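Teaching assistant's notes for section 4

Start the section by putting this record on the projector. Ask students to predict, before seeing the second block, whether ABC transporter ATP-binding protein will look compact or extended. Collect guesses on the board.
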Amino acid sequence: MNVQFDHVTKTFGAHMALNRLSFTMKGPKIVGMLGRNGAGKTTALNMIAGCIFPNDGSIDVNGYPPATKQSSVCLINESGNFNKEFTVKDTVKSASLFYPNWDQKRADELISLFQLKRSKKVKSLSKGMESALGIIVGLASYSPVTIFDEPYIGLDAAFRSRFYDLLIEEFEREPRLFILSTHLIDEAAKLFEEIFIIHDGSLILHKDAETLREESFSVTGAKKDVMELNGKSPLHRKEFAGRTTAYVFGPEWNRHEAELHLLETSAIPIQELMVHLTNSHTGGRK
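Reveal the predicted structure now:
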């Protein structure tokens, strides 16, 4: 259940999608791969599934090059996962033949849960129902590495919540490496055990979720007190009504020390942290 990238580079014409990307994911675990649009997340996820090959560097999935063991990875993309002319029944049957750990009973339960009609063609499904079909295939595949890249486009808040519950339920039932990429970061953040942030094709952060929460927080108080707290530049700073709030990240920042100086502290949502981290890597305003 391990994925390893070693200095992986991928270009599409003049565009560099991945720039010597290196990381290791070790399962079973639920991890988040996060980043802005165009950061390289989808390219990396398709490489894990053996759908795209690197120009340079190496990728190892469970001890093998991805293309040699594609049935051990189930990748569900935002769209375009299935033959539009297939019915729901055809799609599920096709998946059952490809994934060796397929659980038909679980697929049937999920089809009923999401209220899909087996006779409907993929091309006639709403965007939400097509996303539901992707979730069904991903969960019922029981692939050692299961990837969801923006899996719930078109699903309402209730069905997205159901998906999160199902993800935890399936992980407890049959632990595997789940990789989730989403722009609804704060909504899904409670699921993540580890977080990877990619920016401009490179890894800028890899932390377990608990450490990330401990090392990132905001500090609010009088400008002089906030500025004297550490002497280092925060990720981001803003002023309002005569008070300054600094967003800080890293082991050098001590939340207890800030509170001893009677400064207010609070957690930073992971989505906001990602925005400020990526700003700091592109010369954005701090």
